[in-house]
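Good morning,

Attaching, inline, the backbone tokens for the sequence recovery test we're adding to the shared suite. The designed sequence is right after.
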């Protein structure tokens, strides 16, 4: 969202920000919004973007592919600053949503599959200038059931329990978003039920949840008015 006034209003209401470019970071700075609650996602982070985000003190970088690690470590060394990282995992959970908006199954290209993630964690924790602080998942869009969120968390925690290096220093669990809204067809996701299911487990592990509600926040806030201009 490029509207500086809306960014300020969102911040005033307690939200952080999900960045996918250096330009979005600069918008936050232009709006005078604190950047300490922002996370930086995306697979194509450029060096200048990583440097700018590190200097801005963002919460963490979401690493979605192991090819990102050397550049992040190089920037951390240059800045003499340990960069906080949350590794995006693919938990192979079927969210029962449309195939084109599913992102958490084994055949989807998003995140690191669990069977490969152990090696990625080993590489990450041995980088002097990187710090593993959490895990990130995102299961797709328009989810309307609690079970996929529960199953994804269980898969991630089972992975973390597989070796001490996978859980040492963990502080965050980014459960992604995809909260379904009505669109005039069916009920929206019961977010309270998701919280009831996940929060006791997260609290028992002393993990802070990070949530990306996306369209759930604004999807019902307006009406699209159109006019047919012609037929072809």
């Amino acid at each position: 969202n490029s509207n500086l006034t809306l960014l300020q209003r969102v911040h005033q209401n307690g939200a952080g920000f999900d960045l996918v470019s250096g330009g979005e970071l600069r918008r936050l700075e232009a709006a005078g919004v604190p950047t300490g609650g922002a996370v930086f996602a995306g697979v194509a982070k450029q060096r200048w973007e990583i440097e700018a985000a590190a200097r801005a003190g963002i919460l963490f970088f979401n690493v979605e592919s192991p090819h990102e690690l050397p550049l992040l470590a190089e920037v951390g060394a240059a800045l003499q600053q340990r960069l906080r990282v949350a590794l995006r995992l693919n938990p192979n959970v079927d969210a029962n949503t449309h195939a084109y908006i599913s992102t958490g199954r084994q055949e989807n290209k998003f995140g690191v599959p669990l069977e490969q993630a152990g090696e990625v964690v080993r590489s990450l924790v041995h980088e002097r200038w990187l710090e593993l602080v959490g895990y990130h998942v995102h299961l797709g869009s328009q989810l309307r059931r609690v079970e996929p969120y529960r199953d994804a968390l269980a898969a991630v925690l089972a992975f973390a329990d597989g070796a001490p290096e996978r859980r040492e220093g963990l502080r965050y669990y980014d459960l992604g978003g995809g909260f379904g809204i009505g669109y005039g067809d069916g009920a929206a996701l019961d977010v309270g039920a998701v919280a009831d299911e996940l929060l006791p487990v997260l609290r028992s592990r002393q993990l802070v949840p990070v949530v990306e509600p996306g369209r759930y926040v604004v999807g019902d806030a307006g009406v699209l008015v159109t006019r047919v201009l012609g037929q072809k």
